[in-house]
Amino acid sequence: YRDTLVREEQFTGIVLARRSSALGFETGGRITSVNVDIGDTVSENQVLARLDTRALNARLRASDAQISEARAAVQLAEATRERQAFLIERDLLSSQSFDEVQTQVDAANARLAAAEAQAQTLRVQIELASIRAPFAGVITERRVDEGAIAAPGQPMLELIEIGVPEVRIGLPPDVASRLLVDDAYSISIQGREVSARLKAITGVIETNGRTVTAIFELPEATGIAP
Description:
32% of the residues lie in helices and 31% in strands. It is α+β, with helices and mostly antiparallel strands.
């Protein structure tokens, strides 16, 4: 008879990228270029795809013209107000007339502000007509080609982060309760023993496996892919 028993338990998990995103256009339109393909490594803020923006550019030019016209109207209204102010100081003009001129100045400034806001809206729409990489990573899926019509929010590209991968392992609640966040634990990955830091424990028992997910952070130098 033995007084103690050592029992070894193994729990399986999966290596995941810390961040992954399904990328698409916020607005719809015709795709003019897709600059990446599956397996390409991209940098943060790199342009991955673009929509046709010719109509938006034309509207922006028209809006810029409206801004120039509105600025000219503001300058004219302000010059008129200065002349009227000179006259009202010498009691050569009624207060009613000066108030009307001031109203014209306010209206001209309001039209200028509206034109500038419209132009800014168009610039934002042109900016949103490009998909940019939110972080450095690798393209794992490309679902569209040039000439296709993109729907708003439709996933076009799949991007996963390169760098620090994570390991997610489902553990029984009693086992998870004995682990300490920020401590290092040995994990076997593809026959290698890797020391990984416990990043977090969800604390929620999943209904399917009745397990709690523990998230471990692998060192950058391991070279283990998701």
